[in-house]
From TrEMBL:
GO MF annotations, alphabetized: antiporter activity; xenobiotic transmembrane transporter activity
A Pfam match: MatE
CDD domains: MATE_DinF_like (cd13136)
Keyword Transmembrane included in the entry's annotation: yes
Keywords per UniProt: Cell membrane, Membrane, Transmembrane, Transmembrane helix, Transport
TM stretches of this protein: 12-33, 45-68, 89-112, 132-153, 165-184, 196-214, 243-265, 271-293, 314-337, 349-367, 379-402, 408-426
Name of the protein in question: Multidrug transporter MATE
Family: Belongs to the multi antimicrobial extrusion (MATE) (TC 2.A.66.1) family.
Database matches in InterPro entries: DinF-like (IPR044644), MATE_fam (IPR002528), MdtK-like (IPR048279)
C-alpha cells in the first residue's frame, strides 16, 4: 500500500511509531523503576507508591490533551501548508502546559493528605503516599510542558527528538531514584524528588528544540492570552474524554485499596506493567494521529482511510504479540517487584488476565488515535462518559464481593481490562465505520 507521495504507508507508520514507542516506553519506565526501588523498602511503601502514583498519573493524564490537541492541530496546519500557524498553535499549547502545571503543583501539595484519605488508604501505606505526592509535585510544570512540546514535534512528524529526551530522562530518573532512596536514605521522598528533577530537565531540553524553530519561522515564543485560552477551548472535549479514562483508572485503584494491602500492592505491579504495554500500543496511535491529521489537512480522505485500515492491523497484531509475551513472563515479572509470596501469586494470575485482553486493547488505542487526529473530540467526550458508566457497576461489584488477595486482584482487572475496554472498542469501532469524523481542511 502506497501513499500519494509514493512512500509505502507501512514505512510512514513505522517511521513515526518506532521512535514514539521508545519515548512512550521510557515514560512508564519511570513507574517501573520507582516501583522496583521502593518495593525493596517493604509492602507499606510499595502500597503507598501505588496510591500516590495513581494520583500523580491521573493528574498528568488529565492533561494529556496538551499533547493530543497540539499533535492534531500542528499536523493539520502543516498538511494545509501553513507552518507559521502550526508553530504558533504549538507555542500556545506549551504556555498552557506550563501554566496548568504550576497551578496543579501547588494544588497537589496542599491537598495530598486529603486525596490519600479519600482513596481509603491502609494505615501503613498512607504516610508514604502523602510523602511521594509532595516531593513529586514540583515536577508537574515540567511534566505538562513535556506533553505539549512532544505534541508539537509529533505534529511535525518528528518522533525521534522526544525519544532521545525521554530515554535520557528515564536513565536519569533511575539513577536518581536509587541514589536518593537507598544511597542518601530519603526513602519514598527520594523517589518523588528524582522524578520531579528528571521531568523538569526533560522540559528544558524540549524547549531548547522547539523555541529556535519557532523563531526561524517568524513566530514569537512569548505567551498570548487569547492563544492560551484558545488552547483550553479546543482541548476541552479531549479533557472530558480523558477524565472518563482517568476516572476508571482511579476507580480501579480505589477498589484495590478497599480490598486490602496485598491486593493494593499487587495492583501497583499490574498497573506498572499495563502502562508499559498500553504505551507500546499507543505508539501506533500516535502515528495514526499525525498521519490522519496531515492527510485531512491536505483534503485527502483516501489516504486517511488507508491509514485507518493499516494502523488497525498493526495495533491488533501488536496486541497479540504483547499478550503472548506477557503470558510467558507472568511468573518471573512479579519477582522483580516484591518478596511477598501472596502478592507474587496474585500478580501472576492477574497478568495472565491482562495478556488475554491486549489484542482488544491494540484495536482500542489505534481507533482512539485516529479519531483524535481527526479532531473528533466531542464524540470521544460523550462516549467516554458512556463507557465509564458501563464500567462502574462492574467495579463496584468487585469492591463489594471480592476479598483481599488473588481473587480481588483478578476480578478487579477482569472489570477494567475486560468490561471497560470492550465498551471502548464498541463505541470507537462504530464511529470509525462511518464518515462523519472525516472533516477535511486546516480547521
Amino acid at each position: 500500500m502506497r501513499s500519494p507521495a509514493g512512500r509505502p504507508l507501512d514505512r510512514q507508520v513505522l517511521a513515526l511509531a518506532v521512535p514514539a514507542l521508545g519515548a512512550l516506553v521510557a515514560e512508564p519506565l519511570f513507574v517501573l523503576v520507582d516501583s522496583a526501588v521502593v518495593g525493596r523498602l517493604g509492602v507499606g511503601p510499595l502500597a503507598g507508591l501505588a496510591l500516590a502514583g495513581t494520583v500523580l498519573t491521573t493528574v498528568v493524564g488529565l492533561c494529556v490533551f496538551l499533547a493530543y490537541t497540539t499533535t492534531a492541530s500542528v499536523a493539520r496546519c502543516l498538511g494545509a501548508g501553513d507552518r507559521p500557524r502550526a508553530l504558533r498553535l504549538g507555542v500556545d499549547g506549551m504556555w498552557l502546559g506550563l501554566t496548568l502545571g504550576t497551578v496543579l503543583a501547588v494544588t497537589l501539595w496542599v491537598t495530598a493528605p486529603w486525596l490519600v484519605a479519600t482513596l481509603d488508604a491502609p494505615a501503613q501505606a498512607a504516610p508514604h503516599a502523602v510523602t511521594y505526592l509532595r516531593w513529586s509535585a514540583p515536577g508537574l510544570p515540567g511534566m505538562l510542558l513535556v506533553l505539549a512540546a512532544t505534541g508539537v514535534l509529533r505534529g511535525m512528524l518528528d518522533t525521534r527528538t522526544p525519544l532521545v529526551v525521554a530515554a535520557a530522562g528515564a536513565v536519569l530518573n533511575a539513577v536518581l531514584s536509587v541514589v536518593l532512596v537507598h544511597g542518601v536514605g530519603m526513602g519514598v521522598a527520594g523517589s518523588g524528588l528524582g522524578t520531579a528533577v528528571a521531568q523538569t530537565l526533560m522540559a528544558v531540553a524540549l524547549l531548547a528544540v522547539v523555541a529556535p524553530g519557532a523563531r526561524r519561522a517568524g513566530v514569537s515564543v512569548l505567551p498570548r492570552a487569547l492563544g492560551v485560552l484558545g488552547g483550553m477551548r479546543s482541548g476541552a472535549p479531549l479533557l472530558v474524554r480523558t477524565v472518563s479514562l482517568r476516572a476508571a483508572i482511579l476507580l480501579a485503584a480505589w477498589v484495590a485499596a478497599g480490598l486490602g494491602t496485598v491486593t493494593l500492592a499487587g495492583h501497583q505491579v499490574v498497573v506498572a506493567v499495563w502502562g508499559l504495554t498500553a504505551f507500546t500500543l499507543d505508539a501506533l496511535a500516535i502515528a495514526a494521529q499525525a498521519l490522519v491529521g496531515r492527510s485531512l489537512g491536505a483534503n485527502d480522505p483516501v489516504t486517511t482511510r488507508a491509514v485507518l485500515r493499516r494502523t488497525l492491523q498493526w495495533g491488533t497484531g501488536t496486541g497479540v504479540v504483547l499478550g503472548v509475551t506477557l503470558a510467558a513472563l507472568a511468573v518471573p515479572l512479579p519477582v522483580l517487584f516484591t518478596d511477598d509470596a501472596a502478592v507474587r501469586h496474585a500478580t501472576t494470575l492477574t497478568l495472565l488476565v491482562v495478556a488475554l485482553t491486549l489484542p482488544m486493547a491494540g484495536w482500542v488505542f489505534v481507533l482512539d488515535g485516529v479519531l483524535i487526529g481527526a479532531g473528533d473530540g466531542p464524540y470521544l467526550a460523550w462516549v467516554g462518559m458512556l463507557t465509564l458508566a458501563a464500567y462502574v457497576p462492574a467495579a463496584l461489584a468487585v469492591r463489594a464481593w471480592a476479598t483481599d488477595g488473588t481473587g480481588g486482584l483478578v476480578w478487579s482487572w477482569v472489570a477494567f481490562a475486560g468490561v471497560f475496554m470492550a465498551a471502548r472498542a464498541l463505541t470507537t469501532g462504530l464511529r470509525a465505520r462511518g464518515d462523519r469524523w472525516m472533516t477535511t481542511g486546516a480547521a
